[in-house]
Amino acid sequence: MLSTQQLIEFDREYLWHPYTSFTNPPVVFPVRRAEGVHIELADGKKLIDGMSSWWSVLHGYNHPVINKAITDQLNQVAHVMFAGFTHEPAAKLAKTLVEITPAGLNKVFFSDSGSVAVEVAMKMAIQYWYSQGQAQRTTFLSLKQGYHGDTFGAMSVCDPHSGMHHLFHQSLSHHLFAEVPACKFNEKFDERSFANFSQLLQRNRQKIAAVILEPIVQGAGGMHFYSPTFLLRVRELCNQLDVLLIADEIATGFGRTGKLFACEHANISPDIMCIGKALTGGYITLAATLCNDKVSNGISTGKNSVFMHGPTFMANPLACAAANASLELLMNTDWQSKVLNIEQQLKAELEPCRTLAAVADVRVLGAIGVVELKEPAKVAELQPQFVAQGIWVRPFGKWVYLMPPFIISEQELRKLTEGIYDVVSNIA
Known about the structure:
alpha/beta, 35% helix
C-alpha cells in the first residue's frame, strides 16, 4: 500500500486531473474511504460531501444494498459484450427506465457516460432524418449557456462562445444557439422570451435534425433555472414543425429538481432523452439514451435500418446491477419529501449569502442550491478553505453550489450552508 506521501508524489508525477494544467497542478486531497455523506481523507479528516461527486451519489457512499448488488453480480458475470448477448440486469433496468421516464420513451440504448449518451442522441436524430429521405437535416438548435459534455459532438452543441469549450469552436460542427430563456423558474412567463427561439426554429426547420436542451436547469453552463412554460412552448413548436426534441437529463434526472425528471415540470415528453450521472447511484459509470417509437421505427424501417453505434462496455452487467439497486432504493423511499426538505433548508440558509459583497444572486430548486458570485471563483484559494470547514464544495466559474446526497441530515446540510457563508464572506 502506498504511503500518503507516495500517493501525492505519484499523483503529481503521472496523473492529469480534469480541467487543470499539468505543469501547475492543483492541491489534491488523498481519499482513504467514504461512508454515507462523508469523505474521509488520508489524514483522518472527514468532509461532508456537498457535490454528490459531480451530482451522482444519490444515496451516499458505501451503501450496503448497492454494494451487495454489485458483489452478487460479480460472482456471475462482470462483463460480456452486448452484441449477440443479453443479460438480466440490462433487461430489468431497461424495463424500469421505460416505466419511470416520460410516457412514450420505450426504447433504451445503453452507453458508458453522459457525453456518449448525447452523441448517441445526436446520431439517432441524424440517422432518423436520413432514413426519412431528408439527409440535409444535420443541424441542431441548442441554447446559449448550455452544456452537454466533453466529446466532440457533445461539445458542438455547448455554448460556442461563453461555454467551457469555446477554444475548440473552430474545430467543431457549427450549430444554432437561441438566447437563454429570460423567464426564471418562478416568474410569470413572458411570451416575448420565446421569440428568438421560435424564429430560429421556424427559419431553419428544413436543416434542423433536433432541438437539444437541458430541461429547466442549465447546469455546468451557469446553473440557470428557467420557466417550465418555455420548455412547454419548445415541445409545442417542435410538434408543429415536425422537429425532434432531445432532453439532456443527465444532471437533472432522478429527482434532483424535485421531479423525477425535469421534463415533468412542463408535463412534456421528448422524442429522445439522455440520462446518466445518478443512474447507478454514483457507483459505476453508465448512461442511457431513450427514444420513442417515432425515432426507433423511423430509423429501423428506413434506408439504413441498422443504428450505427456500439460501445465496448455497453450495458455492463455490474453497472446495470448497481443501477437496478439504486433505482429500487429511490423508488421505494419518499424521495420527494427528502428533496423538498433539502430545498426548504437551502432556501432558508443560503439566503443570507445574498447580503455578502461578493455575491450577485442566490437561487434554489429542488436539491440544488446556487450562490452566484460577481466574479469567477478562485478555486485554488477557496478549495482549501472549504476543506478547513470540514466540507467538500467545489466551485466552477462564478458559481458556488450544492447538490448533496438525498440522505443528508439537517445538521449535515447546515454545516455545508454555514461553511459556504463563512468562506464566501471572506472573498475580497
